[in-house]
Design brief:
The protein has a six-stranded mixed β-sheet with strand order 8-7-9-6-5-10, with helices on both faces. The protein contains twelve helices and eleven strands. By secondary structure, the protein is α/β, with parallel strands linked by helices. The protein is 43% helix and 17% strand. It has two domains: 31-133 and 291-319, 3-Layer(aba) Sandwich (Rossmann fold); 137-286, 3-Layer(aba) Sandwich (Isopropylmalate Dehydrogenase). Strand 7, helix 8 (204-217) and strand 8 form a beta-alpha-beta unit. The protein is globular. The longest helix is centred in the last third of the chain and has 19 residues, at 300-318.
Length: 319
Amino acid sequence: MRQWLMASVSTAETLHPHSQYESLIRACRPLAPIRTAVVHPCDESSLEAVKAAAIGKLIEPVLVGPEKRIQDLAAKLHFDLTNVHLISTPHSHAAAAQAVALARTGSVEALMKGSLHTDELMAEVIRQEGGLRTARRISHVFIMDVPTYRKPLFITDAAVNLFPTLEDKVDIVQNAIDLTHALGLDMPKVAILSAVETITSKIPSTIDAAALCKMADRGQITGAILDGPLALDNAINTQAAAVKSIRSPVAGDADILLVPTLEAGNMLVKELTFLANADAAGIVLGAQVPIILTSRADSVRARLASCAVVSLYARHKKK
């Protein structure tokens, strides 16, 4: 989907709000919808998102949850369920277990969180027996559409791994790199963030950054250009990098931001969302199928973009 990325660069130069997501959703129009188990869609925001994604032919939803609640809510939202597969479960926990079972048997190609808590869904995904684990660490990537940044910005991990170890970060960054490849970016630039751009034992994340860069040199991380530690300003702003005399192909031009902890990433995403009018699509990677994690605060546009990303990623994974 290189066309989407190239369109994003050109349209973002005009600072047109959210043109990147519009291009992403357009890129999925020629594709068949991806069969997706929607887990416990029992509030208006989650079922409204399913309705929009189904109408836009981004997903073929399989609704999993209390049948009567879903039907009543669909009637209220004028969402015709005549041709929608609905699997009845008594409560959200059972819905999560059933959706994971569908993914494990190949009946669906993706999962989408409804109105249950993220921890409840992820507990079933990571279950040792009957879950969706792979050899890769499970992690989350936000695909940010920031009106003041000239291209999509991928931030990881701000939703799943609290205090990742160095080994965790290897998988976290590789998951994000693989996602950008699925979206048509062959050699993304990864900025490994810390509070400073120099290496010091007083800030462990700077040591991790240096180790990750050397691991990339040794082929333990592939498919991207890594640099770090970098502070946020010199990761995304060329002038800030120049002032500090940082010579790097990544500085000022990052595609992926690898944050040191979930707390740092979560605050960064919310700052961009609520102070810079950004949208944040999100996807969980590293499991047997991709997972769309939505929030009640997400706009419909961000939810549709999440569905589009999962659609493109799932197809790329098949190849």
